[in-house]
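Bumping with the actual sequence this time:
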Amino acid sequence: MTVETNTAQFASVSLDSGATLAPVTVAYQTYGQLNASKSNAILILHAFSGDAHAAGLSSETGKPGWWDNTIGPGKAFDTDRFFVICSNVLGGCQGTTGPSSINPQTGCPYAMSFPVITIGDMVQLQTQLIDSLGIERLLAVAGGSMGGMQALEWAVSYPERVVAAIPIATTARHSPQQIAFNEVGRQAIMADPDWNDGNYYSSRPPARGLAIARMVGHITYMSDESMREKFGRRLRQKEKFGFDFSVDFEVESYLRYRGSQFVGRFDANSYLYITKAEDYFDLTNAAGTLANAFAKAQARFLVISFSSDWLYPSYQSQEIVRVLRRSNHDVAYCELPSNYGHDAFLVDVAEQSEVIRGFLESTYKEKA
C-alpha cells in the first residue's frame, strides 16, 4: 500500500519546562480504517531516529516504513482489523515542529532557541492529535526503545485513554550508561565547528559530528554476536592491512556508511533535543517510586525484551513487570531470544509478531 504523510496544526502545547510552544505542526500517517465505535485505534510510537512513516510505501520516497514488517494486512498490527496511527515526535525533523522549524516570531529556524522537551511533552502533543481524530480511547499504544518510553508515559499520564500498552526493549528510566552514550553523541555534534552553536541552517550542517554520533549509537544497537556474524575481522576489499588510517575492516566501512547515511536524513539539533528528552525520562520523577507511578494505570501490559539487547537490557523490562505484578496489574512478559541486540525489535520480528498478535486479539475481544 502507498501512504501519504498528513499534517495537523495546533495552537500551542504547554511544556514540562514551563515554556509554551506555539503554533505546533504534527506529521502523521494512518493505516486501515477507524470503525464506527472508534474502538480499534492503535498508536504506534517511534524510536529515537524514526518518523511518522511506519508502514507501507511512502508516496514521497517510495520506501517502506520502518516497521513495515509488523504493520499491515495480516501482520502483528493487522490493518484489516485495526486503525493504526503513527506521528513524528515533537522536536523531530520529519514534519513535526522541532529546532529546524521556522520560529514565527523571527522568521528563522528555532535552532537552539527551541525549548527543551520531554517524553511527556511528546505524549501530550500526541493526545492533541488523537483528539483531533475524534478518538477518546486507544485500543493500544506500542513502540520500541524511545517508543516504549512513550507507551509507558501514555499508560501512566492518561490511564483512562489506554486499553493496552506494549512497551518493547525499553526502560522506565535511563541508566547512567544510557545517558553516557547519549552525551558522547551530543558532544560529537557540538564539537564540530560547523555546528556553530546550532546556527548552521543557512550554511553547512555539522555532518562530521552527527555521523560520529550515529556511529557510536549504532554500535549500541547491535550485539557482539551479531557484529561477529556480520563482519568478523574481515578486511574491506583488500587482502592485507593498509598500515594507515583508511578503512581496513568491514565493520569500519559499515559504520562510516551508517554515519554518512544518517546525515542526509536527520537534523543535528533534533539529535540533541531528543536524546536529552530520553535522558530526562524517569517515571518516578513525580511519583517517587515506580509502584506509585503505575498506581493509576488501567491498561493491560505486554512487555517485551530481547536476550542480546545490552543497550536496554532485559533487567530494565523485568523491573517494570515486577512492579506491575506486585500491584496486581494485568501484565504479560516475554524475553525473546535474538542475536540482533537492541535492533531485534525492528528486524527479528517473527516471534514478536506472534506474541503481539495474540495479545491484541485477546485485548480487542475482552476490553474494546
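The C-alpha cells above came from a reply further down the thread. DSSP finds twelve helices and 16 strands in the chain.
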